[in-house]
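Narrative of accomplishments. A recurring question from our advisory board has been how the design workflow behaves on a single, concrete structure rather than in aggregate. To address it, we present the structure tokens for one chain from the evaluation set, followed by the sequence designed for it. No filtering or post-editing was applied between the two.
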């Protein structure tokens, strides 16, 4: 296994339910994110045509990007076919994750061979449901993974019980999905006055406050908000740099999100 290195703290870009097979939209959103400093892009065979669109959108800047995508199948044959497509679209995959723990013990065997041969940098595993966190912890305890992807935001904190401490103990890089609660945390926006104490931390907007809340936990490396908007991609990327929140600012965000 490669030596564990941190990936962040940084803002990445998620691609679920965003540009799908729309290569023009992908070029806009990925281009805006890239120009704003985003380098890690998360995708999956489950996200329609998102992987192919992402590959096209990265274009000549591909070498500067970190592609984090996934293998999502109960079948070894289908899993390998997904990987073949990814190599076509991306040239190689920096972070290959087993999506939703699908056949993880079986898929891990051949993925480890790819990592040992240097064709994949890191192997990860993901799940979105707290009911699967026991199995996710079991997978991490094998010490065969380098990264874990899980949901975390002020209203979804189940990972704090076992997974975040375990990831820290094992030196795993943590990638956070759903940092904006799939948009549910954005339905009611706090006033500018309520956000004023966060301004010295570079926070101008509520999505930035939520992203900075995630990244201010030192056990977390990357937050991957998804967006269909170039302007939102720029806004989100701006939350990926210090200064980070302390306990008071984190608590304020939790209260505003409650
Ligand atoms: N949700 C899951 O179960 C799951 C599972 C596995 C992996 N993931 C990965 O995690 C990524 C992120 O999770 P997610 O997509 O579920 O949810 P999310 O990133 O928490 O929220 C996405 C929603 O937030 C909105 N948004 C983003 N930035 C905004 C901004 N600055 N201002 C206003 N609205 C904004 C987007 O709408 P606009 O398009 O209008 O910006 C979209 O509706 C996924 O794309 C995927 O790569 C998710």
């Amino acid at each position: 296994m490669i030596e564990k290195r941190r990936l962040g703290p940084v803002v990445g870009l998620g691609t679920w339910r965003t540009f799908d097979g729309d290569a023009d939209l992908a070029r806009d959103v990925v281009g805006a994110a890239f120009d704003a400093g985003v380098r890690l892009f998360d995708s999956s065979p489950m996200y329609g045509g998102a992987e192919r669109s992402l590959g096209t959108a990265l274009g000549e800047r591909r070498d500067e990007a970190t592609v984090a995508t996934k293998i999502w199948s109960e079948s070894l044959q289908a899993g390998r076919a997904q990987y073949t497509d990814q190599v076509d679209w991306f040239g190689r995959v920096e972070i290959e994750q087993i999506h939703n723990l699908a056949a993880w013990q079986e898929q891990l065997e051949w993925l480890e061979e790819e990592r040992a041969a240097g064709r994949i940098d890191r192997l990860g595993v993901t799940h979105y449901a707290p009911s699967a966190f026991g199995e996710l912890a079991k997978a991490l305890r094998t010490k065969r993974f380098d990264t874990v992807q899980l949901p975390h935001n002020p209203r979804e904190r189940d990972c704090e019980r076992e997974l975040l401490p375990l990831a820290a103990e094992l030196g795993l890089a943590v990638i956070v999905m759903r940092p904006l609660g799939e948009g549910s945390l954005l339905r009611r926006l706090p006033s500018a006055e309520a956000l004023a104490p966060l301004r010295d931390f570079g926070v101008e907007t509520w999505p930035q406050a939520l992203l900075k809340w995630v990244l201010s936990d030192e056990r977390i490396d990357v937050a991957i908000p998804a967006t269909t908007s170039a302007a939102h991609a720029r806004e989100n990327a701006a939350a990926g740099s210090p200064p980070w929140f302390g306990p008071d600012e984190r608590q304020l965000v939790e209260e505003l999100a409650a």
